[in-house]
């Protein structure tokens, strides 16, 4: 394995600092620095960007981001055991790594970041989807980030990039693809991690679009899509009947047969339906 810096191998770092992964924190450590460097490169040209990293753990991806030229990395870590190892990285890259101990769900990182901003993280499995949804649903668009390069369970990654008609297609696909371009850039088997999880993982790269692909009110689109997929086995005329009076007229206005099911409807049609519902309120 080629070294990406002159710091110790991650197995040695973990042994030195007693960093056995905790299931309660959703931790599975990726120890191959070649892989963490590949994830960092998948985030694009980092030289002029601040990077937000969530859950750096012993710092494998952190080292990859810094070695690949990130201007600055802001790393938010909930596990205080990891801070001494991360501080050793900060000392190796003076002025380029800032550490915040705490819960990423409760911390606003923007006061510590300067645009352009990218997010890159091997997200803890227990908070990954919630963080993604937050980043995709800010009060204003474009968001604070230019791109997201994120590790998920393979099943979640497939839901983000899914196409209409597939079993994985649902609310997460619509949410991600409405205002971003999303693709899977790297697959990782369980044995790449310590401890090995029971499922495969994948890295998804999302690039923010300047504006949504199709016009729609975000709140109405979210409500309509949620109603449709909450009862995805039902025809839309049934699953959406509580969304607005005369739902079949709205479906017709959007060009959607009332007998369709949610997973058969593409993003453009969902947006057209949201616009019709909005116009009637």
From TrEMBL:
Residues 35-210 form the Ribosomal RNA adenine methylase transferase N-terminal domain. Keywords: Cytoplasm, Methyltransferase, RNA-binding, rRNA processing, S-adenosyl-L-methionine, Transferase. Its EC number is 2.1.1.182. S-adenosyl-L-methionine binds at residues 28, 30, 55, 77, 103, 122. The keyword DNA repair does not apply. It is found in: Cytoplasm. GO terms for cellular component: cytosol. NCBIfam families: ksgA. This is Ribosomal RNA small subunit methyltransferase A.
